[in-house]
Amino acid sequence: MRWKGRRVSDNVEDRRGGGGAKAGGISIIGLIVAFVAWKFFGVDPQQAYQATKQVTSSGATQGAAPANLTAEQKEVSDFVGTILADTEDTWTPILKAKGVQYVSPKLVMFSGAIQSGCGAAQSAMGPFYCPADQKVYIDTQFFKDMRQQMGISGEQNQTELSARDEAGDFAQAYVIAHEVGHHIQNILGISGQVQQQRQRVSEAQGNQLSVHLELQADCLAGVWANSTHQRTQFLEQGDIEEAMDAAEKIGDDFLQKKARGYAVPDSFTHGTSQQRMQWFNTGLKSGDIDRCDTFN
Ligand SMILES: [Zn+2]
């Protein structure tokens, strides 16, 4: 995908540890935790925290932006800021047409551990959106894990593509757009309604509602891709496949099979790979938020 040279959002808070953030060794446990953490993609960080206790914390930082960014760290923040700006340029006019003034979420980049409005967040939790402080949290190590451990990468045309392209940049952008999708659901009151409904239904029905919420966030990510491509022609050959590949790898059925050797439909919270791909495509092809009604 093309992303350089566009506007970079100033709604990014860089709270990574300064210069050469500690990456930490990747253990087998860490790998399993990373897979499990994918499930929490946008879900209650407290739960994810419980699941990732064994991950060692490193350099929790508050507030201050790191002073000496490496070239790679700078590249990551430019990338994240550009994708966030793309979401702003997508949702501002779409929501305006619905009479809603869009206020972008802040996007917090961190490394190691951080305190969020939804509790403590730790490395390997995976990205999440916290409705309480309206911020998207991304541990940038997770992007590295995505390509190194989950095998999510872009096409491998080494001669033409930059390092980021090889790293599956569109899959990473899709992750950000999905989290911003949860922000859209929050400001439109959809997630609040689902939260209320969940209290009145069985656990299995509650999980089903969560699946609809997740699939809708995928559809909203598709709307972002459609809108951004119309403005910037940013999609390149292989990008959609890359996102589909990512969606496949983060479908709950895939994760559950990996983790336990079989799938248990009632405990799905993100939907099957097939469902995720289908709803992302619905948003992508239509570019229409009204087509993202995953609840009916
Ligand atoms: Zn989600």
Automatic annotation (TrEMBL):
It is found in: Membrane. GO terms for cellular component: membrane. InterPro entries: Uncharacterised_pept_Zn_put (IPR007343). Keywords: Membrane, Transmembrane, Transmembrane helix. The keyword Membrane applies. It is a single-pass membrane protein. Its main location: membrane. Residues 7-17 have a biased composition (Basic and acidic residues). It comes from the Bacteria. Residues 1-21 are annotated as: Disordered. Pfam families: Zn_peptidase. The chain crosses the membrane at residues 21-41. This is Neutral zinc metallopeptidase. It comes from Acinetobacter wuhouensis. The lineage of its organism: Bacteria, Pseudomonadati, Pseudomonadota, Gammaproteobacteria, Moraxellales.
